[in-house]
Amino acid sequence: MTASQSDVLVLGGGNAGLCAALNARESGASVLVVECAPIEFRGGNSRHTRNLRCMHEAPTDVLTGSYPENEYFADLMRVTGGESDKALARITIRESAHVSPWMKGFGARFQPALGGTLHLGRTNAFFLGGGKALMNAYYAAAKARGIEVLYNAEVVALRIVEGHFESATVLVNGAPIEIRAKTLVAAAGGFEANLDWLKEAWGDAALNFIVRGTPYNKGKVLKLLLDSGAAPVGDPTQCHCVAIDARAPKFDGGIVTRLDCLPLGIVINKNGERFYDEGEDLWPKRYAIWGRLVALQPDQIAWSIIDTKVVDRFMPSVFPAIEADTIEELAGKLQLPTDRVTGTVRNFNNAVIPGAFDHTTLDGCRTQGLSPDKTNWAQRLATPPFFAYPLRPGITFTYLGVKVSEQAAVIMSNDSPAKNIFAAGEIMAGNILGKGYLAGFGMTIGTVFGRIAGREAARAVA
Amino acid sequence: MPSHNQLDLTQEGARIMRICNSCRYCEGFCAVFPAMEKRQTFLDGDLNYLANLCHNCGECYYACQYAPPHEFAVNVPKLLAEIRAKSYRTYAWPRPLASRTAVWSIVTASLVLSIFYARGVAGRGGDFYRVVPHRTMVLAFGGASVLVFVALFAGFIRFWRNSGENFAQLFNPKALASAMGDALTLRYLDGGGGGCAYPDERQSQSRRWFHHFTFYGFALCLASTTTAAFYHYVLGWKAPYGYFSLPVVLGTSGGIGILAGTLGLLWLKGISNPETQAGPQSGMDAAFLILLLLSSASGLLLLALREATAMAGLLVVHLGIVLALFLTLPYGRFVHAIYRSAALVKYALERSRVKAGWKAS
Q1: Quick one: which of A252, A151, A257, A45 has its CA closest to B66?
Q2: Are B349 and B176 spatial neighbours (Cβ–Cβ below 8 Å)?
Q3: Partners of A183 in the beta sheet?
Q4: ipTM at complex level
Q5: Which of A161, A384, B18, B322 lies at a C-alpha separation of 20 to 30 Å from A21?
């Protein structure tokens, strides 16, 4: 087995790992990054992201209006229901005010703040070209600064003695290498691409999940750390899961597989039955529950059915809708029991109370007497042609992680922080985002804690 | 989703634009993506319009989470380069001339003719008009200019019609001014400040500068010819003009601009990432650049040697090259000047419609 050595070893080449590597290098340490993907797919789930959420008191070149600390904190508390380490949350939010100039220093580019065109333009700074462009900039900056990167490099063992990191065994293109380093930064993401691990919580249903992001987040480093005595944080059975187009590739389909038409029609399962109130609340507040709802249906599949009245009311999907002139024909094309489907639609149509439809507000257009009722945006499905989109649970990320201190040091099970082991990004995001989801917050946690981990890892070397 | 070799270019264009339209991460790069977002379907005319808005840098390719080896295999610069090359052939008038064989035939014929002529006049001294009479020059180049103008105009009409615009819309001063500004500054080659990802992944302004050298060099050469014509016909001053006369200064600086610009563009083309290029079109693009380069090099050489005995042969060969350049303008890379400008006018028109609250088609 060959050997290698550096001051700081970073496991994971996504946003958090690169931020840690760059900051450690700026502090004078030698840095080696280990990335398990090949170069074309480097960057973990960061390559699918688009923006990060930043606190700011006044408009900046990349953000409109203001997004003060308290509003940001309140938003976080609302989505997590308080499942968040409040001290770490405050650090993340306050530091987020300073990250964009730092990022630009390493070649990051942002879209100019355009009021109105992007509805998240106040709270979120958008990367020009998206997350992969950002990762390309970071990798170029890393190369220019002499940071070495190993691709196709899978971590198979960590030697941690009494809470002290000694070395890692890494398979590079299948050949084992022993890497010794003075400090370790674990930034290798969650386990959402590990269907076997997901099966522990979801049973065989997990086999029908679609992984929206990278196939490389198998949670190996997370598991090795937990096995070495790192204290866990977050619910191991929970994941962020949305309903996406069932025709999406098993992995890496990313943003284009999303479907926003669910509240505009009805959603049925393979028995042709509705199973949840499609009009419960505005879509941005409800889309995250639908992954779980579909996961609980037989064979983890469902169909969103709409009619011609609403076709131009949602973002175009990458997959064409399945189209038919009658509900019977549509049921046939979907290979669903025709009688059940037509019965469901007939009952739904008969239960619709006429009202003024407005898909932009809670319009109160509802059904009466159904179980479950649809409580907003209920319109009769009566204008052919009819359209259907198949739905599957699309898993985005997992919440289980390692517990960290304010210095990003991994807390061991005896409750004391490890001296030379740090963590950043999704592998520790559960400390702050214990539940729910806030757009662009994962990148904020990764950037803020990546910088902290890099700085502290370099400091621990000296 | 079928792989892209199974589909023809229009189907493949629609497939990829549908992915882009569901993603939209690239909307900050250039005009192509905002223009794409105004559409839900992508037919021939839409794709030709988008292709002619594209400068074929690689920003969106490097940034794309769906670029090969991802199974979606999205490569917008290559796709649009292929569609653009096809659109040049579709809009050309007369259409059969927009082929590699036709362009090479025109070039070869012009050069062979000029070499024959050159053998006949070898050693003749004095001024240019004793080698090639003024009337012959005016007839040859006047005639060629008319043909070229008609062909380019016909191409423009075809493009404009295919893009779904009507001719009344064309006389919108605001849109024309906006498009002219975009074209003259190469706004979308600026990548929002740092330049484009061309010839490789890094941002660079080099292509923009070399294009400026070429374009403004070409403009100076036209200005030189126009000034010389004014001297000849209006002022009655006959050539040759002194080294520091206006036509010669304009022509010399223009020639140097073209020389530097075309050499730079050819060099960038040579080292550009082949993944983002359309293979067959590259030869045609290079042919145009080489003819421009040869025109300028032979023109400058002629100026330097205009007192020498080699002048006569050189003059005829120079004129042969310029004639070949002129005659092939409507059938090669030069047409991008027409279609890209027209696409920018359409882009400005579409934006003004959205601002005015009309629904874009």
Answers
A1: A252
A2: no
A3: A8
A4: 0.93
A5: A161
Whether pLDDT at B69 is above 80: yes
Give strand pairing partners of A5: A180
Count the Cβ atoms, other than its own, within 10 Å of residue A262: 25
Three-state secondary structure call for residue A318: coil
Q: Are the C-beta atoms of residues A151 and A42 closer than 8 Å to each other?
A: yes
Which residue reads 């992508």 in tokens?
Answer: B42
Residue with tokens 């997990």: A206
User: How far apart (Å, rounded) are the C-alpha atoms in residues B288 and B332?
Assistant: 7
Judge contact between A377 and A394, C-beta under 8 A: no
Is the four-CA dihedral B250, B255, B256, B257 of positive or negative sign? positive
CA-based nearest distance B142→chain A, Å: 48
Question: Which of chain B's residues have a Cβ under 8 Å away from the Cβ of A120?
Answer: none
B253 burial level (CB within 10 Å; 0-12, 13-18, 19+): middle
Q: Which amino acid is at A181?
A: A
Residues of A in contact with B23 (CB under 8 A): 130, 254-256
pLDDT band at residue B354 using 50, 70 and 90 as cut-offs: confident
Does the distance separating the beta carbons of B201 and A140 come in below 8 Å?
yes
- In 3D space, the residue among B359, B352, B338, B356 whose CA is nearest the CA of residue B84 turns out to be B338
Using 50 as the pLDDT threshold, list the residues of chain A that sit under it. Answer: 116-118
Give the residues across from A267 on adjacent strands: A304
**B25 contact residues in A (CB cutoff 8 A):** 50, 127, 129-131, 133, 255
For residue B63, give the nearest of A41, A112, A132 by CB distance: A132
Q: Is B23–A312 a contact, with Cβ atoms under 8 angstroms apart? A: no
- Chain A residue with minimum CA distance to B15: A318
Note every long-range contact of B164-173, with CB atoms under 8 Å and residues 24 or more positions apart, other chains counting. Answer: B164/B45, B164/B46, B164/B361, B165/B346, B165/B349, B169/B349, B170/B345, B172/B345, B172/B348, B172/B349, B172/B352
E strands, A77-152, where?
A: 124-126, 148-150
User: What local confidence, expressed as pLDDT, does residue A47 receive?
Assistant: 96
